[in-house]
Design goal:
Elements lengths: L1 H18 L12 H11 L6 H8 L3 H17 L4 E6 L2 E6 L4 H7 L10 H13 L2 E2 H8 L4 H9 L3 E6 L7 E5 L1 H6 L11 H4 L5
Antiparallel strand pairs: 1-2, 3-5, 4-5
Helix pairs in contact: 2-3, 2-4, 3-4, 6-8
Length: 201
């Protein structure tokens, strides 16, 4: 009787996890692909491949394959979103073709708006980085101290070091948030300056 009781207890312990399964809907069996999708869906910022692979429990190489498979499925199903590479990481984003409807839903935060002068200063820093304030002011023709501080407050510009010149002024560069806001994977993805020039009339 004692041996049977011990066997019954062992069987009951093995069955316990199965009794908890009804908490999930249907025959829920997570796969690495579905876990990758769930993590990206829940994240509100880009996840670097190494971090995402660590969370999911796979290699970066396999992770990229799963993401390609997910994107292929999204395209085949005509889904409104894709997994994109942004700021050196992966993020689930809606396609730009839906911006017209999404703009009705989303309200742009007032502190996130950039004036024309701020955009001009940011563009100079982005293309000339690392750059000192004097060079930014030389290009714009006006003082840029307050504008640079405002861009730093918004998290778009950072101190990138000090220049090896007299006085060792601070060097400025853009942040990862800059890449994220403008939908860039790296600085190499920025438009070529020549492409921004207006064609001759």
């Amino acid at each position: 009787m004692t041996e049977q009781s011990e066997e019954q207890q062992t069987n009951e312990q093995q069955i316990e996890p199965e009794t908890e399964q009804p908490l999930h809907s249907g025959n829920f069996e997570p796969t690495i692909e579905s876990v990758t999708e769930a993590v990206l869906f829940a994240s509100d910022e880009p996840l670097r491949p190494e971090r995402l692979a660590d969370i999911v429990g796979t290699s970066v190489k396999q992770l990229r394959q799963y993401i390609e498979q997910l994107n292929s499925r999204y395209k085949a199903n005509n889904n409104a979103f894709r997994i994109e590479q942004i700021a050196g990481g992966y993020q689930m984003l809606t396609l730009s073709g839906y911006n017209h409807w999404l703009s009705k839903l989303l309200r742009v935060r007032s502190d996130g708006k950039l004036s024309g002068a701020a955009l001009e200063t940011l563009a100079i820093i982005a293309y000339k980085q690392p750059v000192i304030r004097a060079d930014v002011e030389a290009i714009r023709g006006v003082a840029a101290g307050d504008m640079i501080r405002n861009l730093m407050y918004k998290g778009l510009v950072k101190i990138a070091g000090r220049a090896e010149v007299l006085g060792r002024p601070m060097l400025y560069g853009t942040t990862r948030k800059f890449l994220q806001i403008f939908g860039l994977n790296s600085l190499k993805d920025m438009p070529n300056v020549e492409e921004l020039k207006k064609p001759p009339s």
